[in-house]
Predict the 3D structure of the following.
Amino acid sequence: DTGVSQNPRHKITKRGQNVTFRCDPISEHNRLYWYRQTLGQGPEFLTYFQNEAQLEKSRLLSDRFSAERPKGSFSTLEIQRTEQGDSAMYLCASSFTTGGYGYTFGSGTRLTVV
Amino acid sequence: GESVGLHLPTLSVQEGDNSIINCAYSNSASDYFIWYKQESGKGPQFIIDIRSNMDKRQGQRVTVLLNKTVKHLSLQIAATQPGDSAVYFCAEIISGSARQLTFGSGTQLTVLP
């Protein structure tokens, strides 16, 4: 296992279009997190899954955002009707539920809405 | 507002010198802290962590100090190398939460030759 994988690495889309990102976590990790990071800022929590269950969502996650983890493995994050303010780096991380709290982050998907 | 903040947005050090990056937090319920390094175009990379029942932890060339009295933690990097140039974030996890991380805004460390 080579770590957390995110695709695509970069996405440029026109305002109003829908986009979907994929995250493949470390296979042994049962927790999966999505974060958003804007330039010069630290990542901000969006949502997390334990196995296939989405257990918490941030207020940042508007109705246009939806995340799934259908089989408790990979996850997708979809943004509908994109806005320029959605331009950011979207980061995925995974971890064990118990024991060490250490997260492993992916390299992120850079979204640019034009 | 942010629970975790950093004192300085940028820090420049000479190669071979020691670096100290500071971080303040405000939530007394935080029970776990992590330092991350982020290079341009990459995700945050784990450096070192510390639980709230500890005041010091050492790794390879790095030391984290936690002062719960003043809600302050620091990252010390010994013999700073050019490869240490990056943005450094401290992050906290609040006890009983979904274990999500709350990040500060980061310090840009630049190592001068």
DSSP finds no helices and eleven strands in chain B.
